[in-house]
Every structure is written in structure tokens, then in C-alpha cells.
């Protein structure tokens, strides 16, 4: 569990390099390219992959449970064009009773390039990707603040 006691998780994935598909079961899916962000405001189960028609691989089969505050790097697949994602979550109060949060779609995509705020989001998430790749002392603290 990512954040025990949280009423809701807002999950996000930023495509730093390459492209992928994202989707929620019995719901929308979207093709994402570098510079795009997908959010799952309700914390729904979702799929990420190179091909929306491929059978999903359960995350539990390729990822061990992280220790609290641990930065996790995951490498999966191979043989195709590389895709690099920066993934994270925001823990918040429950969505129930919050009309704005309740009105958000199950899958929300944002193209951040070319927008007034996009450079800030992209540079912040690119820094998170670099920090994750470097695995330096203090990376966990830096990534927690960036998230």
C-alpha cells in the first residue's frame, strides 16, 4: 500500500522519453508521448504498456513492495524502443463530498509542452527522472519534495 490511511490517491505518470498506452479497466485509454502526463485522480487500477492489446503483467510480479520513503526503479520488457516514465502519487482526503474531485474523469491526460505552466512541470519531472537515475545520497528527500 502506498499511503496507509489516505482517503484517496491521485496517481500520475509523466512520459519523459518514448511513448506508451495508459488505460483504466472498463474505461478510457490514451496514447501518450514524451512530454505528456497522465493522472488517475481516483487511484483506480490502471495499465501502462507499449501496446494496448497485449495482456497486462501484474505489477506485483515484477516489483517488490518499497520500504517507506524508498525510491524505486523498475525496468521491464526489452527489445523495443525505450520509454522512461516518472511515476508518483499524492495522498489526500477522500474524494467523497468533494464535488470538484468527484467530477474529474478516471483518466486525465495533459500535454505539458507548449503551455505557460508546462515548462515548470516538465522540468520538475525531468529533474525527478534524473534524480531517480542517479540514486545519489539525499535522492529520497529531493524526490519527496518534487512529488
Question: Your description of this structure?
Answer:
The strands form two sheets. A four-stranded antiparallel beta sheet has the order 6-1-4-7, covered by helices on one side. Strand 2 and strand 3 form a beta hairpin. The longest helix is centred in the C-terminal third of the chain and has 17 residues, at 118-134. The chain is an alpha+beta fold and 147 residues long. It is built from three helices and seven strands; from the N terminus they run E-E-E-E-E-E-H-E-H-H. It is globular. The two termini are 17 Å apart. The protein has helices at 99-103, 118-134, 139-146, and strands at residues 8-17, 19-23, 29-33, 36-40, 47-49, 84-92, 108-111. The protein has a single domain (8-146), classed as Jelly Rolls.
Quick one: CATH class?
A: Mainly Beta
Number of strands: 7
| Terminal residue distance | 17 Å
Structural class: alpha+beta
Largest sheet strand order: 6-1-4-7
Q: Segments where pLDDT lies below 50 for 5+ residues?
A: none
Pick out its properties.
147 residues; alpha+beta; Jelly Rolls; three-stranded antiparallel sheet; 3 helices; 7 strands; globular
A few lines on this structure:
The protein is α+β, with helices and mostly antiparallel strands and 147 residues long.
Write the layout of secondary structure elements.
Elements: E1 8-17, E2 19-23, E3 29-33, E4 36-40, E5 47-49, E6 84-92, H1 99-103, E7 108-111, H2 118-134, H3 139-146
Helix pairs in contact: 2-3
